[in-house]
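=== RUN LOG ===
request id: a7f3
mode: sequence -> structure
chains: 1
length: 238
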Amino acid sequence: MMQLEIIAFNLQSCKIIQQAGAHRIELCDNPAEGGTTASYGFIKEAREASHIQLFPIIRPRGGDFLYNAEEFEAMKSDIKVCRELNCDGVVIGLLKADGSIDKERTAQLVSLAYPMQVTFHRAFDRVNDMHKALEDVIDTGCNRILTSGLYPTAEEGLGNLKKLVEAAQNRIVIMPGSGVRSGNIQNLAKATGATEFHSSARKLQKSKMEFKNSAMNESLEFYTADEAEVKKLVSLLS
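=== RESULT ===
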C-alpha cells in the first residue's frame, strides 16, 4: 500500500492533512529553517486533533546536523515528551563532522523512542558515502529514511533513490521527499519503486488581520497545507 506523509507547520494544517486523506503528519515548527522541533503545546494539541500517524521532528535548531552534548540532551528530552504524548513516531538525523552517520547517538535515540517508529530525515542527503550511510542507518534500528537521493530535489536524485530502494531490500523504507508534487509523484513511484512519499504540499496563507501597520513592511503570510494538492497526491497514489 502506498503511503503519503505531509508536513504540518501549524494546527490548521494537521486538520487539512487528515481530512484530505494523507496517512502521516510530520510535525514541524520554523519552516524558514527547514523545520525544527515543535513546542510541547503544539505537539499536544496536534495529537489530540489527529487520529492519523503523527511524527514530530526532533531538531533543536536549524543549520547542520552536528550536535553538541547539550543539544543531544535536548533531543532526548523532546523524544520523551513525544512518547508521553502518544505520538506514533519521531524524525531525527545526526551526522559526524566527516559526513558519516552518528551511529552511536542515533541508536541511543531510537532505543529511547521505542515503541515509537523513527525516521532518519534528510540529514542523510549530506552524507559522504550513500551506501555505507544506508547500512549504518539500518544498523541503528530506524524504520525509514527520508531522502531526496543526495540532491536538492527527489527528481534530481531519482537515480540514487532507485539505488537506495534496491539496496535496502525491504530492510528499511526509503521515502522520497523534496519537490514531490502531484505533477511528478507517479513518475517517482514508477522510476524508484518506493512505496512511501513525503511532500510539503504547502501554500502561503494570507493574514486575516484587518489592521496592518504599513510602517512594519511585513506580509504576515504563513504556510499552510494545500488541501487540494494533498487530495490530488492521495488520489494519484491510490
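=== NOTES ===
Helices lie at 11-20, 40-49, 69-84, 103-113, 130-140, 158-168, 185-192, 227-237.
The mean pLDDT is 97.
=== END ===
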